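Hello Y.,

Per our agreement to keep a running log of every chain we model this quarter, I'm adding this entry. I've kept the format consistent with earlier entries: sequence first, then predicted structure.
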Amino acid sequence: MFNPYLLILCIGHLVVDLGQGVLPIITPLLAQSLNLSYLQVGTIALAFTLSSAIIQPVFGVLSDRFSMPWLMPVGLFLSGLGLALTGVVGNYEMLLVVVLLSGVGVAGFHPEGSKLAHFVSKEGRAGSSMAVFSVGGNIGFGLGPLLAIFALSFSGMGSIHGVMIPGTLAALLFLFFLPRFKNILKEKSARKEDKKRAEGSSNKVAHLVLLILYVTVRSWIHSGLVYFIPFYFPAFKGIGGAEYLVSLFLIAGAVGTVLGGPFADRFGGRCGLLVSMIASLLVIYPFIHLSGNWVFVLAFMAGLIIISTFSTTVVFGQRLLPHNIGLASGLMLGFGVGMGSVGVTLLGALADSYGLPFTMNLISFLPVLGIILALALPDIRGGEPVRGVEETLPQEA
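Predicted structure for the entry above:
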């Protein structure tokens, strides 16, 4: 049955994550105008991470304790506003402030959005439903560079304020549906509390730590490539139009997310995590060393493979923390993913000291660590979402 709420959440996820694709494209322009080093470039990513991702578990805890669906429209608006203000700042310090503002908007949206997506998913389809929600973010991430290129085409950073239009429109859409979202969250949260009292706690902290470490490694690989492709390929491979290469890489991630969720539903989450890292190890090294048309083919393959486990890790975390869905979502979508930008900062420091080619080669071998972590994780299946959600959804005509 068609699920309209899941589609709306997918659209919101798309819009809120546009900024994560916009920021890497405008960063070289900001670096040039403000004379920034690689380390400062990495720190911009870190600032966005601290506000958009690292604090997401805090929003997740609040989401578990209090129903706050209003955070979704507010987050959508702030995510675009902060990036729009990058066109008017005149120094590095103010740049960090507006990037932080955009990140707070992103952080506010994700825990409530993913919790709602969990509650409206059908029994036995948790991975597939989360894949629908997640693919919105991946598409937004992939379309972000194209949005940035379009906005910059008018008058450079002077017209970057146009990136706030999608967020404003999406915020209005979510305001319209806010009463219905409140009703769903109220009903399903009540059922979750009843189930919690009946079953007791089943949190697996050690496994959760391993899962977070896995997501951290994946994020170091993914974020490192996204932020350094625009610097590496023009300078060391003589390939222009690197922003289109980034967009292709990110859009491929959306395809990977669509495939990864159903794969995990059928074969198990651990299998999906392991296959992703093995394939990444085989693809990334030739991607950064070959030239010509192979670069674009391998960029697509790398983007698809690396991020194919995005929805899988969210569902994995929710099954490890079945009574703290908001916290689990915040950890997977926020803290774990956000550690990627911490990685970019460290990788940027390495690039300053040893050169960008050394850093790109290091990234290509990080999947080895991901393989080890995947093998250490349990093969958890089941733990499906609350039944009966279909009763709250409008029927097909």
